[in-house]
Amino acid sequence: MPSRRDLLATIGAGAALGLAGCASRDCTPIEPAGTDWPQPGGDSGNTAAIPDGSLPARVGDRWRASIVPDADLLAFAGAVVDGERIVGLGRIAETGLYTEYDLADGSTGTRVTVPERIASPPVVVAGFTAVVAATDDGAELRLLSNGTESGRYALGAAPATPRAAGTTLFGGDADGAFAYEVTDGRERWRREFGDQQEGGAVSFSPAVDDRRAYVTVTSSSDRGIYALNRLHGETDWSVTGPRATRAPVRAGSLLLVPTRNELLAFDAETGERRWSTPTPADRRTFSSPAGTEAGLVVADGAAIHELDPETGELGWSVDFEGVGRPLVVGDAVLASNDGATRALELGDGSERWRIDDVSLVAPLGNGVLVRRGDELIACTACEN
Predict the structure, then answer these.
(1) Do strands 290-292 and 273-278 pair parallel, antiparallel, or not at all (unpaired)?
(2) Which residues contact 10 (CB under 8 A, 6 or more apart)?
(3) 356: Cβ–Cβ under 8 A, 6 or more apart, which residues?
(4) Secondary element (H or E) of residue 140
């Protein structure tokens, strides 16, 4: 998935059918099917998985859409899939852009300007889209409904991408953690960490389940993992010491936290450590894992690995230099680097298909949304 530094621009209005880069040139691609991928990491637990989804055996280009046909693309923040629409954020000269697109053909719907200094990908929650942008005093979260602003919430500096769960956004910044209720535009709670000399920063998106929001505090004055009551923000349990290097993942009974040179697994109910797994070849860190307790994978920047949720042992490995965080869709794994997007079998890591010169944006109900340069491409299952 695109990083925060690869900030988005808008998809243009003109979409073209063709075979510009998806894997099967002898393919008649079908119309894209919608799915629920409303935020980076997919769901409130940040599992990056659609367990009951399926990935086609072959894909072809259904449509291509020019990104910002009437201006130069400066930055790409990301896009999410909300049913039958795509929602994207990006930046051109002197402004940011919010754009909605029709999943069926890539045509542009609502398009409005937003603050230029976009700080995270979009997050769809309860009919709204959350847009986070840096300000001179820190940052600000804006809620949009069909392109119309419906609320604002002031944040501290260096905000993490908020995590949507139900009708609430859970997030963090240089000052601590917060919960913001989007239906009535109020702060539900805010927690501070650290001491008076240095606050405790929450630098990564939380993972959220039905009872708790799991945040990682990374400042020198306060470092560790906090399981906060989802309703009022009080601490249910905490583990002092680990410094997260990526966002936590709530999968099955586990809370998974990447740290420097190892991945830690905790019992999500109690905070008891279950296991730890060192990175291969002394790699600096793992990505956030992806999947469920039925099947997990993790990347280390040079390879993708199967991960046993019971023991933390690594299974099959596939070399893929520069790989970002993978996704799991049914019995398949999706991953990309700067040069290609690959689909692998979850069971053994064998390659199902590969699309060169594109980066992964989001899964679809019957394929993938990818980016090549200034185009977005919907790659869907082959009819023939």
Answers:
(1) unpaired
(2) 67, 68, 88, 90, 92, 97, 99, 108, 111
(3) 21, 339, 340
(4) strand 138-145
CB 243 within 8 A of CB 210: no
Q: In the numeric block, which tokens belong to residue 243?
A: 């410094």
CA quadruple 144, 154, 4, 255: dihedral positive or negative?
negative
| pLDDT one-digit tens code per residue, 348-372 | 999 999 999 999 999 999 999 999 9
Supply φ then ψ for residue 280, to 5 degrees: -65, 150
- Specify whether the backbone of 59 is left (phi greater than 0), alpha (psi in -120 to 50) or beta: beta
pTM of the predicted model over 0.85: yes
Percentage of the chain beyond pLDDT 90 is 80
pLDDT in tens, 311-337: 999 999 999 999 999 999 999 999 999
List the single range of 100-114, 189-203, 352-366 with lowest mean pLDDT.
Answer: 189-203
311's CB contacts (< 8 A; 6+ apart) are 275
Other beta carbons less than 10 A from residue 310's beta carbon = 11
Query: Cα–Cα distance between 14 and 26 in angstroms, integer?
Result: 24
What is the predicted pLDDT for the residue at 66? 78
Pairing of strands 49-50, 327-329: parallel
Identify whether the C-beta of residue 79 lies closer than 8 Å to the C-beta of residue 369.
Answer: yes
Angle ∠(256,217,282) on CA atoms, nearest 5? 55
Domains of the chain from N-terminus onward = 11-381 (2.130.10.10)
Strand order in the sheet with 273-278: 249-251, 254-259, 262-267, 273-278
Cβ(64)–Cβ(369) below 8 Å:
no
The Cα–Cα gap between 124 and 182 comes to 11
- d(Cα 208, Cα 221) in Å, to the nearest integer? 25
Cα end-to-end distance, the chain, whole Å: 29
